[in-house]
Amino acid sequence: MNLNEPHTLSISDAVQRMFRDPVDPHKLMSTAKVTKLLDVSASSIDRWLADPEMKFPKPIVLSRNRYWREVEIRTWIDERAQQRLRGE
């Protein structure tokens, strides 16, 4: 790597750097953790779930609480980043 050349980091690379830890396909995230990760409100999550174009992962409901598979949330974030790179 030449330090004199500018280095650009793609959105996809930036997302991957955010998630350096290996993903446990069974790990669940609560609504609070999802909203914190995405820096949005629970109302935003509800709107995304109601909008088929957003393709937001469906939650798993346990005792009236919603949980998401972490791998599905990470995949959704990466897919959104790829869409931005393609200009969609």
Q: How would you spell out the order of helices and strands?
A: HEHHEEH
What is the global morphology? globular
- Percentage of residues assigned to helices: 40-55%
CATH architecture: Orthogonal Bundle
Tell me the number of strands.
3
How much of the sequence lies in strands comes to 5-15%
State mean pLDDT (0 to 100 scale).
Answer: 83
The major β-sheet equals: 3 strands, antiparallel
Number of domains in the coordinates? 1
CATH class: Mainly Alpha
| Rg calc | 15 Å
Counting DSSP H or I runs of 4 or more residues, the number of helices is 4
Gap between N and C termini: 31 Å
User: What is CATH's topology name?
Assistant: Multidrug-efflux Transporter Regulator, Chain: A, Domain 2
Helix and strand composition category: alpha+beta
The stretches of 5 or more residues where confidence is low (pLDDT under 50) are 1-7
The order of strands across the largest sheet is 1-3-2
Question: What do you see in this structure?
Answer:
The protein has 88 residues and is α+β, with helices and mostly antiparallel strands. The chain has a single domain (24-86), classed as Multidrug-efflux Transporter Regulator, Chain: A, Domain 2, CATH 1.10.1660. The chain contains four helices and three strands. The protein has helices at 11-18, 31-38, 42-50, 70-86; strands at residues 28-30, 60-62, 65-69. A three-stranded antiparallel beta sheet has the order 1-3-2. A hairpin with a 2-residue loop joins strand 2 (60-62) and strand 3. Helix 1 packs antiparallel against helix 4. The chain is globular, with a radius of gyration of 15 Å. The termini are far apart.
